[in-house]
Amino acid sequence: MASISKADVAASSSPSPSWSQVAEAQKKVDELSKQVLALPIADLRAIKYRPAALPEDIPQPGIDIDISTIEVPVRDGAKIPLRVYRAKAASANQLPDSDGAVLFFNIHGGGWVLGVPETEEAQNRIIAVRNKAVVVSVDYRKAPEFPFPVPLDDSYDVLQWCRQKENAVSLGVDANKIVIGGGSAGANLTAAITLRARAHDNLSGIVGQILNIPVTCHPQYFPSERYSHLSWSQNAEAPVVDAARMIWFWNHYLSASGVEAAADPSLSPLLASKEALEGLPPALVQVAGMDPLRDEGLAYAEALGASG
């Protein structure tokens, strides 16, 4: 990871000029979100998901991309929806000696509690078309009804299904060209899945990770003696997701195991040993300056770099 001074990191918490254009509107959204998240879970689930408007120039189904949903069985017999985005030009990305297109395995964000694949619809379509790839987005079961380790197990099992030869063929992908990625809680699951695959000598074919604003450590267990954790206090009242909301998400994800379980690297990848991090696929770690999660993302990038 390129060297970044502590002063530069701290200064990144200042909003950019473009943020001022949406700041007031975001305050209203944040206030509404607080009211919604205060509802009992049953009432929260009863609110019908309404997808955001997509940009006009987004890749179009049937023209640029084919989109479908299939169901994949997991370890407890449940069937997990998997949304598949296949670029029309994906076959052009297949060399004569290739077994298929690149697979981007996306795990959506939402604090392990919220979100669906369509939450990141624009992103998934764009990645598929621009890279002539196949994108799949797993609709793992959510906490608190399905707390840790269910979202992790669901995501891991669906990934293993995609890697099986017959399923890779049906998806039109090369099981040796898989990139795993996600945002926020999805990035947490991405890191945890990769660590699990590493522990089981099962990294073959996973060639990269994309960790966007990742959750890498529960704040109670953050190793502040090794890494800066200024962002947790500096951005405690940040827009979109503040520190209090992150604790709300953590509490739901840990509702069956308790906060003491968060010391496990399956929940807090930053706490993985150097040996566990060695040999992991290359990772792109992206952080936002005005985010409570900023410093844990930077810390995980540093830990990955130190592991070689």
Briefly say what this structure is.
The protein is α/β, with parallel strands linked by helices. Helix content is 35%, strand content 17%.
Q: Could you describe the 3D structure shown?
A:
The structure is a single chain. Helix 5 packs across helix 7 (185-199). 42% of the residues are buried. The chain has 308 residues and is α/β, with parallel strands linked by helices. It has a seven-stranded mixed sheet. It has one domain (55-307): 3-Layer(aba) Sandwich (Rossmann fold). It is 35% helix and 17% strand. It has eleven helices and seven strands. The longest helix is centred in the first third of the chain and has 15 residues, at 23-37. A hairpin with a 5-residue loop joins strand 1 and strand 2. The chain is globular and about 50 Å long.
SS elements, strand count: 7
C-alpha termini separation:
11 Å
Class from secondary-structure proportions = alpha/beta
- At CATH level 2, the architecture is 3-Layer(aba) Sandwich
Give the helices and strands, then pairings.
Blueprint: H1 6-11, H2 23-37, H3 41-46, E1 65-73, E2 79-87, E3 101-107, H4 121-130, E4 134-138, H5 150-163, H6 165-171, E5 173-183, H7 185-199, E6 206-212, H8 230-234, H9 243-253, H10 274-277, E7 283-286, H11 294-307
Parallel strand pairs: 3-4, 3-5, 5-6, 6-7
Antiparallel strand pairs: 1-2, 2-4
